[in-house]
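To whoever picks this up:

The nightly regression suite flagged Sulfotransferase as changed. Nothing in the input moved, so I suspect the structure step. Input below, exactly as stored in the fixture:
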Amino acid sequence: MQLKSNDQVLKVVSMTRYHFVAGFPTAGARHFAGLLAQNPRFSVSSDSAAEQVFGLLDAGREAPDSPLSDLDGDTRAALLRGSLDAVHHARPLDAVVIDNNPKWLGHMRRLSTLFPLSRFVVMVRDPARIAAEIAEETGDARSPASLMSKDGLIGAPMGQVQDLLGSAAADRLLLLDYERLLSDPERVLGAVYSFLGERVFAHNFRDLPARTVAPSVKPLARRFSMPSLSGAHHAQTAPQPVWRRSQSSAALMLLSETG
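Regenerated output under the current build:
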């Protein structure tokens, strides 16, 4: 639809809902985003420029030589919100924007304040499966210590998820296990639509990879909590991930029965 006035532009900005998808390595975020893209109501992007632009603007508020450092808080917030509107300016008037980028994990606290209607989906997977698939794809069998370290491919997002599970935005967070999506896609997508507050759409699951575990017989949604990620024990022994512990969190979790 062609927008013809500033009033219409402001209206579509205020109407648009933004949701964010992030994922651990090999955890199927692209497959999940591809499923959602089948719904014509959704404007879905993977690795758009939105995260990079948002990150640069957000970092500028801390740099003393940046013009952003002189802006008041409300103006900076408007600029950050506007960056997503600019990147996704070609969306249909009534679209729901879903942007998939693993780096959104580091921005989710900020995004939850800027976009009060937003929801966050984080694709997770058993760390052992991630490590095995990385080794298979790259031929580089990395040590558990390097993968699970604070800055490691698994440890870094694990720490960010731990932070989010204990945050005020946790009730807007959905952790979705890749194996659960593969084994029970129709029910999982139904739960995702309920979480997003959208009408269920009939998806085609033909292009999903073959599932690697048996279908679960447990309840669809489960709630878990956050262990400590600090100390040498974490790097050496790769304990259960944060979503496999017993302390409660306000986040919704759709998990497989293994991993």
